[in-house]
Design brief:
Chain lengths: 222, 222
DNA sequence: CGCTCTATTGAACCGCATCAACGAACGTGG
DNA sequence: CCACGTTCGTTGATGCGGTTCAATAGAGCG
């Protein structure tokens, strides 16, 4: 599942199930591209480790980050045979590649086919949540939502306070939320000053008060 | 395909193919609901005639129109067994219902199964386009984009100028684009004053200059 | 015909973008 | 290893686009 403002009861797809099939494992260095907008879709990919970024740009340079892909996420669903986003790695990343025909021809590998369909449906649902965030939430709500979703998705519940790694830059977050880097910074600073988060260097955030964060994500205060 | 800012080479799915199967035809009066958020998903639906509206609301009443469904569109894709939007009819509407299991069990009806998967993939692609619009376009660009997409989707190319029916209210358009009704009005008025459109009553717009409209949709001039 | 709801237009405000300056982190070459 | 340059992050000041509030006009319906 992609990083969006979903309500959390989704599970990543067991990598083991795929590892057992010995699907080819692909490695992507930080900054390397997996595909570009317009490329033919030959494979789908399941992320094993690392984080990727899916982006789309307008001619005038405006950019939208469509999604961040985390381990367990399936990326590269085709429409009309070509990729409609660019995809690159935010850190070193390993992926399993799955021939596209598995998605479209259920007889090739019925179990995997069914997993892919479930992933696509999850994706639609998650994107619907993201619409609400992009269209109807304020900047502070967006940033709080982003951290909340990330926490649900990759938070480590065994430690307190929970620490989030942010492999993406501030401008990636901004382009994901429809904001500017300055606004993202200011919203993070506000959360820090309210002692809801602690900022441990550029790419690490500790969540000190998860329920306060969740409240701000839904606009229940400020 | 849903009404989003896609780049137009998608085709609706031939209703004939389904009519031939004599799938049950359901009728929905204007204003009637097809399902609510939280309902169990038992069927998917293909729209034969009419227009439906998919919406989601926050507790505080903020609303996002996720999509408008036009003839040929397939709606009701499940994630985790329940609907995540409300769906109601903007005018009298007829739909074919398809048992959900056709989507998930390819053996029941392989051809239809494959049609549904293609529809879901289209949907993902169209939603990605919509992200760019919600996150990165100005109000005038959003309104121009909306009209442009509607024109590609349902425009009647046999008449000149092309006339668009708008069965949805201004606030539906606003909630689809992440704006207010006032802003939608002002943007429409601006297009009218620029003689790009003509407003023929509340629910009809004639597009006088399609290329000027397309340019504004991409921000190439005011 | 009158009531209600939606659309339109105007005026004022505000949230976020923009512009600008500074600081921190990082990589490179000496 | 340090000096330097470059990129990224943070903070402040200002402006503007779109919201909010308010009033009027128009459409739909009993």
């Amino acid at each position: 599942m992609y990083v969006t403002i979903s309500h959390g009861n989704a599970q990543p797809f067991a990598p083991s199930k795929l590892a057992a099939r010995k699907t080819p494992l692909k490695t992507l260095k930080k900054g390397a591209y997996l595909y570009f907008e317009g490329d033919d879709v030959t494979h789908l990919f399941i992320i094993e480790t690392g984080v990727v970024r899916l982006t789309r740009v307008l001619e005038d340079g405006r950019r939208q980050v469509i999604a961040f892909g985390y381990p367990g996420d399936i990326i590269g669903f085709p429409a009309q045979d070509t990729h409609h986003t660019d995809c690159d790695a935010l850190c070193d990343t390993k992926l399993c590649s799955i021939p596209r025909k598995v998605l479209e021809d259920s007889s090739a590998d019925p179990d995997l086919h069914s997993v892919l369909i479930q992933a696509a449906l999850q994706e639609i649902s998650a994107m619907q949540d993201h619409f609400m965030m992009l269209g109807r939430k304020s900047a502070p709500e967006k940033v709080a939502s982003f951290l909340t979703v990330l926490l649900e998705r990759i938070g480590d519940t065994s430690v307190e306070p929970q620490v989030l790694a942010l492999p993406m830059s501030r401008s990636d977050i901004a382009d994901f939320l429809g904001l500017t880097t300055e606004t993202v910074c200011r919203c993070l600073t506000a959360l820090r000053k309210a002692e809801i988060i602690r900022i441990d260097g550029i790419s690490k955030v500790a969540v000190l008060d998860q329920s306060a964060l969740a409240q701000r994500a839904d606009g229940q205060l400020n």
